[in-house]
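Here is this case:
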Amino acid sequence: MKKCVVIGILTLCLFLTLFTIPNNGNNDFGNEIIDNKNARDISINKYMEGFKNQYKNPMNIMLVPLDNRPSSTYYGEKIGRISRINILMPPVKIIGGKTTRGNVEEIEKWVRENANKVDSFIISATMLNHGGLMHSRNYTDDYYDSKVYDFQLIKDIKTQYPEKKIYLYDTIQRLAGSVWTIDDINNYKNILEWAELIDKADNFDDQRAKERIKFLKSVISKEYLNKYNIQRKLNHDLKLKMIELAEDGYVDYIIYSQEDAAEYGLHRLEQEELKNKIKTSGVEDKVKITCGADEIHMNLINLVIHEKYNTNSTFKINYSDDSKKDFVATFEDRPLEQTVKEHVEWFGGKIVEDNAEIEFYIYTPVEKMRMDMFISDITRALEEGKSVAIIDISYHDDKILFMKSLDEKIDLSKLATYSSWNTVSNMVGIGVSHAVSYNNLKNIKHNTRELEVHFNFLYERLIRDYIYDAIVRPEIIDILLSNGIDQYNIENENLEEVEQSITKKVNFYEEKLLGDFHNGKVDYKVKNITLPWQRMFDIKVEVANNKNKFK
C-alpha cells in the first residue's frame, strides 16, 4: 500500500514538473516561457496544448536518410530529440556510405517491417533510387542496368497506411560529379565549368563560353562526359516520375532540393521542366523546389511538427550587410534572401518585421564598426528574451574575428543556434531547423532532457562550424599535405592518428574560445572526433557535459 502511495506521489510530481507553466518572469534555462506581451500570430494556449500532448505521447517518425554521414542522420536525430520526437532510422550497416551504396533491398524490407511503429515517413528518394548521395552523381553500368526504381514501396505503404503522411525528398543533381580521391579534382573542376558554360552557350549565345567549351571537351574524357550525361538524365527522369506519386495520392509532400549549383547550368533547365510538370499535374501545393541537400530532412521534421501542432514560428531576418540580400553565393543558384525565405516558409514559418519569436542574424564580413553594431543588436535581442540564431557566412580569419568579438559581448550558450557549415543553403537550413526546435521548447514548461540535447547540439555546432572549420581543419590539412596524405581519402593506417590529432587540437582551443560552456555550472568537453568517411570534410563530434547541470 505504502509503495503504491509513493509511486502515485512521484507520478504526480513528474506530471507537474512537465506541464506546470512558470510565471516568475525569469529567463533561466529549464524555467522559462516567452513573454506573452509580445504580439503573436499564433495562439500560445493552443500551441502549448499541442506540445503538452506531444510530451505525453511522443510522435514517431521514420527517417530513411540521404546517406550515413552525421549531417544526414545524427543531426536529424538531434532535432527530433529537442522536440521530443522519436526518429527511427534503418541500421547503419545497411544505409551505406562513401564507397558502398546503401542496400536498398534491405532498407525496403526494414521499412515494411517497421511501418506500423511510426506516425509518418520522411524518405530520401536519393537513397531509394541510387543508394546514397555520392552514388547519385556517378553512373555505373552494373547498378543501373539491373535496377531502375519503381517506387512500389511508397505505393504499398500508402495503400496499407493511408492515414500516415509520406514526405519524400530528393536532390537535383549538382553540376560536378563526386570526389572520391584527390585524383578526381580535375574532373570535378572541368565538368563543373562545362555544365555551367553549356547553358550560357546554348541558351544565351555566349561566344566566350562556346570557345571555352571547346577546350574543356578536349580535356574531359568522352567516357566520363557520356556517363555524366546519362546519370543526369536518369536522375531527372526519376524526378518527373515522382511527381506522378503526388498526383496519384501516394505521397503527401515532395521537396526537390538543388544541390551545389550556380546561376547558370544544366540544372536550370531541369528545374524549369519540373516546375512545368508540377503545374500541369496540379500538385503545386504538394511538390516544392528549393536549394540545399544535407539539411532538408531536418526541415521536414519541422514541417511534420508544424502540420501536427500548428507551430507557426515567426522570424525577423537581420543582415550585417543589407546589400548581400541579392548575393548569390558559391554553390548556390539563387540570391541569399530567397534562400532564407524558402527555408523559413516551406515548413510553415513566417517572416515578420516586428515582434518575432526568432531573431535570425545573418553575418557576412563587414568593417569593424558595422560588425560591432551588428553584435550590439544581437546582444539586445538576447536581453529581450528572443530566440537568437546566428548564421555565419564568413570564413577563416573573418570568422575568427567575428566569433571572438561576439564571445566578448554575449554568452554563447544562450543562443538558439549557431550555423556555419558548408554551403549557404546548409547553413540557413540547419539554423532554421535548430532555432525552431529550440523555440518550441521555450514556449512550454520543459524538462532538462531536451535542454541537454539542445546544449549538446549547440556546442557541437560551435565546435564543428567554428573551431574545426576556421582553425583546426586548415592546420591538419597542412600536416597531411606535408606528409603526402590525401585529405579526401585518408587510408586506414593513418586514420586513427589523424582523428586523435584533430581531437587534441580541438580540446586545446575549446576551453580558450568557448568559455561560456565551461563556467562552473556546466563543463562541456569534446570526448572524441572521428572521420566517418575518412576525409577531412565530414566529422562526427562526441560531446560530454561533466557537471550535468542545466537549470
About this structure: The longest strand covers residues 165-172. The longest helix spans residues 448-482.
